[in-house]
Amino acid sequence: MAKIIFCFILITLLSYNLVLCDNNNSKVPSNKRYLLYDCNPGEGFNLRRDVYMRIANLVKNLRERKECKGDDWVLVLPPWGRIGYHWKERDLEQSMIPWSTFFDLKSLNEFVPVMEYEDYIEEIGEASIDELWYLQNYAEGWTSGVWEEKMHERDCIDSPVYETDTEGKIRGWFWGYEETYAKKFKCVSVQGMSKMFVQPICGGNTTAKSLMLDRGENMLHDMFGGKNYWDCRRSMVFSHKLIEIANNFRSKFLDSNDIEDNTVMPENWKNHKCNGDATGGPYIAAHVRRKDFLYARQEYVPSIKQVAKVLSEKMKEYNVNKVFIASDGTKDEMEELKSLLPGMIMFKPSKAELNNFKMGGVAIIDQILCSHARYFMGTKESTFSFRIQEEREIMCFPKHTTFNRICADNAKDDCEQPAKWKIVWNSDSEIWD
User: Fold this and answer.
1) What is the spatial order of strands in the sheet that 344-345 belongs to?
2) Of these residues, 43, 333, 391, 393, which one is catalytic?
3) How far apart are alpha carbons 402 and 370 in whole angstroms?
4) Domain coordinates of the chain in residue numbers?
5) pTM score, two decimals?
6) What is the number of other CB atoms lying within 10 angstroms of the CB of residue 402?
7) Architecture of the domain defined by 29-227
8) Is 67 a catalytic residue?
């Protein structure tokens, strides 16, 4: 009798477990599809933010276009890490960093649905990707000398960075998650904007539930500076904790706060419109790029003495005695600048802040502090400066206080200044107004 009861209990438990497994496998709706992406490891933090915008706008198109037949596309956020040159810091783990460390996911979701990579794994039940497209240029270049949009599956130009293991699984970096693999792989030569991917993805070339586009930087914006560009950019609200740290620093060291500076932002970015110009705190700010720019763009990079001279003049012009500096310069360079600019202030993270928010978080705090200044000067062709200019446009600063740079020593004082990419609120036509 005891054996019969035991067998009955065992069968019941097994049946219950099978039901649970079946429920787990069926909890993902049949029309739900996932788009993942990555960039060349050499790309820096701020360019990767720009690539996110290209991919996010692709997801927006995939969700809205008729040929996609109502598929529920979700953007899976690639964990941050392996930005070797830009994030050099000994004894600091900087891989598999979730997006929530830097950005407010609720705000991102107001533009297109997004999810962290680990949530994706949990939702589908395994660390796998159905298909991986490795984006590359055309080996032959522009054969006609005329730009045309095109996309073709081609042989890989460079040696693939992915390998097939003994089980037929495609293995690679995958943001540091060793268990992750792809089921299919191909190289795709592309030359064009993100909307060009809609037809191939929506049944033309794949029916994969999950698709990854590696080397996403090879995809261009649909309409750079257009409404969708700016809506997506506005949705990239920084994490509340990083904003809090920056605001506390502003208050303590820069006598700055949102109410007096006219930079109060609504909780939902969609509710924000410009109601007069932002004033900014009683300080000016500059992004002083050094390191590789000293040789890669040496004709545009001013000396430390030139930086001090120009900023001293601007401090007098704006009647302030403080200047905030964001820089990747050496300790000696910053000490020299400090000796020439007594009112110079920099953000120095505590050990705990560095461990919690990594170098990416420090960069964002620097950008927040620069973006709230009464007047800002950036570095030519620096994506770090571009992101600050965008933040200032979103907060409605006068353009003459935002789009500026310090001229090199041997250049005229009226050297070429940054292009003024103004914010667009309602339609692409505003670009040319």
Assistant:
1) 344-345, 323-327, 281-288, 373-377
2) 43
3) 10
4) 29-227, 238-432
5) 0.90
6) 25
7) 3-Layer(aba) Sandwich (3.40)
8) no
Over residues 26-40, the mean pLDDT reads 87
Mean pLDDT computed over 214-226 = 93
pLDDT of residue 21: 43
Phi-psi category of 195—alpha, beta or left, where left has phi over 0 and alpha has psi -120 to 50?
A: alpha
- Predicted confidence band of residue 25 (pLDDT cuts 50, 70, 90): very low
Interatomic CA distance for residues 96 and 154, integer angstroms: 31
Structure tokens that stand for 214 in this block? 């590696």
**Could you tell me which CATH class the domain 238-432 is placed in?**
alpha beta
- Is 76 within 8 Å of 35 (Cβ atoms)? yes
Beta-carbon contacts of 376 under 8 Å, excluding residues fewer than 6 positions away, are 284, 285, 286, 287, 370, 388, 389, 392, 401, 402, 404
The yes-or-no answer to whether 29-227 and 238-432 have a common fold is yes
CA 372 to CA 56: how far, in whole Å? 27
Tokens describing residue 363: 């960069």
For residue 393, the one-letter residue type is E
